[in-house]
Design goal:
Blueprint (H helix, E strand, L loop, with lengths): L4 H8 L4 H4 L1 E4 L15 E5 L25 H8 L3 E6 L33 H8 L5 E6 L5 H7 L2 E4 L7 E6 L2 H7 L10 E4 L12 H16 L3 E4 L6 H14 L9 H11 L3 H22 L3 E5 L16 H11 L5 H4 L4 E8 L2 E10 L4 H8 L5
Parallel strand pairs: 2-3, 7-8, 7-9
Antiparallel strand pairs: 1-3, 4-6, 5-6, 5-10, 9-11, 10-11
Helix pairs in contact: 4-5, 8-9, 8-10
């Protein structure tokens, strides 16, 4: 598939903002440097700054023009990558849909009228439609992997030092590895297969379970040992930890309304002692998981059911909105709390769009997890 400025200009000319997922587009920009990423045309998530482009933070009234480019993006630009626009995200990236305030809401290319997921939903739309080979994204609770799964593309969340990490949504694992400067290594690994939801009670759609079953068979056929596993006893504590780490950072937000204000108010209720306890649980989580499950990685669905219609989450009251987001993706935030790498891979389903299966690391590093994932995505 061809990825050029001319092709992109031709493609977006016939698409609405809901269809292309850009909140800003400048096809006259040119890269100022040459490097290993020369020729790569990318969008930046509209939570991250790029000099010369507006940042909306997912709310039209929050729009500003930055003086400095986000360091992660600046590093990519220094390697020759060309950023030509911003991709839509919900306000402050707080939800797993993509419905920014006062801005167009991207539509799912695989399920017209339905959400593409979030919070990197605009990025997933752009990659799924073939507008871009890859798009910048970030993941603080599933925000790379959820939209990748919802739109049938690849979403890799690398390991990190915080709940949220930056990365990309791509069409292939090879592109994800290249953009991160990784050389995948296929490990000797024991894989736990987890189909029970971790953080919410929800019935998993049969085709999601069937995809995991087929992926398990594919791994076994390539010599990997698999074993069925169940949720670990401290899962509820981990989810409380996620909420405290996630909401704590919003407590000092100076202005907010609606769902964002609800999150801020929840954050204000978290004491320093509770926040410290959450950090301690998160730090101990990788070893806890390794000891309990005795596996190197886990395989699960990425989503519990197909993408709901646009507007579904925001039609709910705030608590139910949060709860339903968790029910849609009841496994994703584990790897944010544990700061471990995870990837959603599209799996073909007969007479149905592809669905995401997730491989999450327990003992593997980024390169090893991508090497393992290659067994499921050629």
């Amino acid at each position: 598939m061809e990825f050029t400025l001319e092709k992109l200009r031709e493609s977006v000319s016939s698409l609405s903002a809901e269809e292309h997922g850009f909140t800003h587009l400048d096809l006259d920009r040119r890269s100022q440097t040459q490097g290993r990423l020369s020729g790569w045309i990318l969008s930046a998530k509209d939570l991250n700054d790029v000099v010369g482009m507006p940042t909306t933070l997912g709310h039209k009234a929050r729009t500003y023009f930055p003086d400095v480019t986000d360091p992660f993006i600046a590093d990519l630009e220094a390697q020759g990558a060309l950023f030509i626009g911003k991709s839509a995200a919900p306000e402050l990236g707080l939800r797993v849909d993509t419905e920014p305030v006062g801005l167009p809401h991207p539509d799912n290319p695989l399920y017209p009228g339905h959400t593409p997921g979030g919070s990197s939903g605009g990025a997933a739309v752009q990659v799924a439609r073939g507008l871009l080979r890859a798009a910048h994204a970030s993941d603080g609770g599933g925000s790379i992997r959820v939209p990748a799964a919802a739109c049938g593309v690849v979403g890799f969340k690398p390991a990190g030092e915080d709940l949220t990490v930056q990365g990309f949504i791509t069409r292939t694992l090879a592109d994800a590895a290249f953009l991160h400067g990784l050389t995948p290594r296929t490990p000797r690994a024991r894989i736990g297969v987890l189909t029970q939801p971790l953080f919410a009670g929800v019935e998993i759609a049969p085709h999601m379970l069937h995809a995991v079953k087929e992926a398990t068979t594919a791994l076994e056929a390539q010599g990997f040992e698999t074993v069925a596993i169940s949720p670990y006893p401290q899962a509820a504590e981990t989810f409380v930890t996620f909420q405290r780490l996630f909401m704590w950072r919003l407590a000092t937000l100076p202005d907010a309304a609606g769902y964002t204000d609800w999150v801020r108010q929840r954050g204000k209720l978290i004491s320093k002692e509770k926040h410290t306890a959450a950090r301690l649980h998160a730090a101990a989580l990788p070893e806890l998981l390794a000891q309990y499950w005795q596996v190197d990685a886990i395989l699960s669905p990425m989503l519990a059911y197909d993408p709901p219609r646009r507007g579904t989450f925001l039609s709910l009251d705030h608590q139910e909105n949060f709860d339903e987001q968790t029910r849609w993706s009841p496994w994703g935030s584990l790897f944010n709390v544990a700061k471990l790498p995870a990837v959603s891979i599209p799996w073909p389903v007969h007479d149905h769009p592809p669905v995401g299966v997730q491989l999450g690391s327990i003992t593997l590093d980024d390169a090893e997890l991508l090497g393992l994932a290659k067994a499921l995505h050629r």
